[in-house]
């Protein structure tokens, strides 16, 4: 049986998760989707959708989708759905999991890597974070959960952009990119966006998307780099003022930075260093990902991790004339940037 793609849907209270889930469960979209809803969440789907005598709390919807509430833990629910699918009792092609509005999505993501049965049945397609453009700055200022949700995202959808000015929207986008440069950001009205553009992103797969840092990180402050390091993910030239931030000062604890190198890594040194920093800082390392040039292989090494869980895979061969640059992005909570960058520098093959 092919792996079942799973989309993890997160976002702070009022960001639009329920609107999207209702649409999935009721619209004639032709997809067979199992939606897993946490019944202890603050934003439950309307109760009339969930009324059932079954103690398993699984309801087949009229459009072919399946709605399921979590009674115990996510692992049990995923195993139950997979077992019913294998027996032909349920028919679904993918899973959407809603986290509660106050949840850190990290433990949800880790479920797919820590349990062998789950890992052999499901594949995390992407983590989608919904951000309420009207209230985002206040939430990001005051709630660490909201900042973590942004840090974990493979894709960020901005809702309620019609309630803010274009200037405020651009300032928010700038802030979100500063926190998580690897996640594309787009404004959405969930009644208009095709679901295939929401649910089939392949943002989490190791071999599917090799790019680490979007154009936001291309420009570098010339005064900052002896080794091609990015300056806190900030793409402005030296002395350039962020005029569009219009006096909104923030110091988010979720930040990102990028390491770049032209020399290949020594595999043993890199493994030792990554193991050491994950052991110490793993709980604060939300997402990290890289495309690496490694001594001893002609292929790209694709590397990523979530908290203490990490893995690598061989990608395609480097092109004949393609520069063999390594790029790694780290997104986390108050990570010691200098320790990471200096340590990685020492893992490179000597010039």
UniProtKB/TrEMBL annotation:
CobW C-terminal domain span: 254-348
InterPro entries from the UniProt entry: CobW-likC_sf, CobW-like_C, CobW/HypB/UreG_nucleotide-bd, P-loop_NTPase, Zinc-reg_GTPase_activator
Catalytically driven reaction(s): GTP + H2O = GDP + phosphate + H(+)
One Gene Ontology term, aspect cellular component: cytoplasm
The keyword Chaperone appears for this protein: yes
Record GO terms (molecular function): hydrolase activity; nucleotide binding
Key words of the record: Chaperone, Hydrolase, Nucleotide-binding
SMART domains: CobW_C (SM00833)
Biological function: Zinc chaperone that directly transfers zinc cofactor to target proteins, thereby activating them. Zinc is transferred from the CXCC motif in the GTPase domain to the zinc binding site in target proteins in a process requiring GTP hydrolysis.
Family listed: Belongs to the SIMIBI class G3E GTPase family. ZNG1 subfamily.
Protein name (database record): GTP-binding protein
Organism: Comamonas flocculans
